[in-house]
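FIELD: query
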Amino acid sequence: MTEAQVSYAAFVDKLASSAPTPGGGGASALVGAVGVALGHMVGSLTVGKPKYAQYEEELHRLMADAQRLQAQLLELIDADAAAFAPLAAAYGLPKNTPEEQQHKAEVMAQVLKDAAAVPLAIMQACAEAIRLHERFAACGSALVISDVGCGVICCKAALQAASLNVFINTKAMADREYAAALEKEAQALLDASLPLADEIFRNVEGRFR
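FIELD: result
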């Protein structure tokens, strides 16, 4: 296998193992990065073609945004793993005395916030990536437009997967006001982005069927 294939295999093997990380959060970030990379590829294969000269400037902007999101999502793979470790440790803290119970509650409050913040950031990045795909669909070469559909459906899946990691952490939060605010933000991202992703996919699919 090539070096790249070894890296892919190592990640997937670790994901399939009993190791606590990577998990759903890291997987969703990776899928989102793959999705936005497909959008960037469409731009890369379109710029410079005379037929699409009118979109040249916009495509360069879209590609710069896509590259930024791709890098951000890859960083969030590690950030998700880093946030999970203290959460797992916190669940194991003793609570035999009132002092221990108070300490555990304080630690849990912080680590749950950190653990929820990462998948929320993944959701935000994926929502932005979905909006980019709307423009890649409008500006991209017809020869590679199927990749817009592939990319946007990856970003949709990543968005939904990351939302589960937000909600499982907010469910455990004692601060219900803070939890409700995070849940509202996550739900707003879903409500705005899922229908758009479906519309983009249908429009791409409609060019062939």
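FIELD: remark
The longest helix spans residues 98-139.
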